[in-house]
Amino acid sequence: VSEPQTFESAQRELEQIVERLETGQAPLDETIKLWERGEELYRFCRGQLDAAHGRIEELAQRQQPA
Amino acid sequence: VKVQALQYGDRKVYTVSAFNRGVADWLSRLPTLWIEGEVTELKRQESWQTVFFTLKDPEDGACLRVTMGRGRFDALELGLENGRRVHVYGRPELFEAKGDFRLRALSIEHYGLGDHLAALERLKTKLAGEGLFASERKRRLPSFPRRVGLVTGNDAAAKRDVLTAIQTRFPPARVLVAETYVQGPYAAGAMIDALAALCRHDELDVIVLARGGGSFEDLLPFSDERLVRAVASCPVPVVSAVGHEQDSPLCDLAADARASTPSVAARLVVPDADELVQRLDRARAGLVRGARRTVERNRERLERAHERLRRAPASTLERRSARLEHAAGRLRALAPHATLERGYAIVRTGDAILRSADGLTEGARVEVELAEGGFGARVEDVR
Predict the structure, then answer these.
(1) Which terminal Cβ of chain B has fewer Cβ within 10 Å, N or C?
(2) Are B235 and B266 a contacting pair, CB within 8 Å?
(3) With the C-alpha atoms ordered B38, B43, B46, B47, is the resulting torsion angle positive or negative?
(4) Which residues lie closer than 8 Å to A28 by C-beta, 6 or more apart?
(5) How far from each other are the two terminal CA atoms of chain A, in whole angstroms?
(6) A53: closest CA of chain B, how far (Å)
(7) Residue B333 — very low, low, confident or very high, per pLDDT cuts 50/70/90?
(8) Where do runs of H (alpha helix) occur along chain A?
(9) Other C-beta atoms lying within 10 Å of the C-beta of residue B186
(10) Nearest to B295 among A18, A24, A49 (CB)
(11) CB within 8 Å: B302 and A45
């Protein structure tokens, strides 16, 4: 499974997988694979967002007047 | 006066004395006139019978020597000083012993308010005609001057007031102060030099010309044609902060902006530091808000996708199972039992299913199968 380059590409891929699954066109065994890939993409994006959030709060803290 | 010439053959020759007497006589026939100029080189001593001074044309520096009897001079009680502008009433004369041309003054008057006003009005009309005061010549003042020049008197309250106002409004302001005369006969020239000196500094972006209130005469240097032209042609924008609201020296008209008070001058040349800090703080808060919002929006979008992802395989399975059920239903509908359920019956003789009444005889035994159970029967009649 290839690693996604950026948050945006991962998010896009995840959404494409969801759409594909929702139309119910994928063969059953592929459905499971897609689902697993989707979960992986979700964890990646979630990790990126949590990191960004943490960094923003850290900077916001530092901005508080001493 | 009859001037006698010596005769050398054909040539008529005059003695110096005779020549001077002749010129003096001729000059004495010229009318008595009013002459305007600035007093310089004033010499008056108790032991002298005559007071001497030179009258200078402020425009081009042309000079005229003037004499006046000391008694007459003292009686005028003018308190005359070098640099004062005067009208002198007198007639030209030649001091015969020296061959000196000069004006014998009969009266002297201070150049009056009315004269000043009339001269100012003429100058104003002339400079306006040249377009020196036109609004399209006005330059925009810099919003962030790297350096501010201040031309002002050396211990003037105006200097302190403007400096204080600038530093209160914008503490990091860098101000270059050029101290100079702001009053009297040398003020205009000194201020022109000060402007030029400031303009030689790097990073100078604007100049304030400041002087507190004063009498009409005190402010006259600020209407001096040379200064007004220097202000108009200054390489950086000039703010005129001269006198009070009601004063209107000509340099106000030539300057790029006019300030009636030191705080107005400060407002014109430097930004408000407090306001800048507030704006920066607002921008920084907006930055944090924006960053948080971006993360939140992406998080919501991600969670929506994840929610759909979680449901997607289940719904795929449901759909498939529903299809399976459907197929099974159709299969079941085709089985004989389902037909019997709908009220049909299967009739057999022996093992064979009856599809036709042909060959049946009355009294023959048949087996009847129903959806639920069955029974044996005999044929009553055949149709």
Answers:
(1) C
(2) no
(3) negative
(4) B316, B320
(5) 48
(6) 7
(7) low
(8) 7-23, 28-63
(9) 14
(10) A49
(11) yes
Of all residues in chain B, the percent with pLDDT exceeding 70 is: 98
Check: CB of residue B338 under 8 Å from CB of residue B332: yes
Q: Encode pLDDT of B219-274 as tens digits.
A: 889 999 999 999 999 999 999 999 887 778 999 999 999 998 888 999 999 999 88
Amino acid at B45: Q
CA atoms within 13 A on the CB side of B281: 8
Question: Average pLDDT in the A11-25 region?
Answer: 85
Q: Where are the beta strands (DSSP E) in chain B?
A: 6-8, 11-13, 33-43, 50-56, 63-69, 85-95, 100-110, 147-152, 175-179, 204-211, 238-242, 257-258, 346-349, 352-353, 365-369, 374-378
This model's pTM is above 0.80: no
Contacts for B74 with CB less than 8 Å, ≥ 6 apart: none
Interface touch A59/B288, C-beta < 8 Å: yes
Task: Compute the distance between CA of residue A52 and CA of residue B294 in angstroms, rounded to an integer.
Answer: 10
Tokens of B358: 């042909």
Residue of B nearest to A13 (CA): B305
Total Cβ atoms within 10 A of residue B167 = 15
Please classify residue B52 by burial: count the beta carbons closer than 10 Å to its beta carbon, then call 0-12 exposed, 13-18 middle and 19+ buried: middle
What ipTM is given for this predicted complex? 0.79
Question: What sections of B335-383 are H helices per DSSP?
Answer: 336-341
Q: Name the residue in chain B with its Cα closest to that of A37.
A: B309
What tokens appear for A17 in the block?
């997988």
pLDDT of residue A66: 44
pLDDT of amino acid B132: 93
What pLDDT does residue B343 have?
87
At B172-215, the pLDDT tens digits run: 889 999 999 988 878 999 999 999 999 999 899 999 999 988 88
The residue length of chain A stands at 66
Residue B221 to residue B290: CA distance in whole angstroms: 57
- Find, among B107, B115, B17, B2, the residue nearest to B58 by Cα: B115
**One-letter amino acid of B179:** E
pLDDT of residue B253: 93
- Which residues partner with B107 through β-bridges? B89
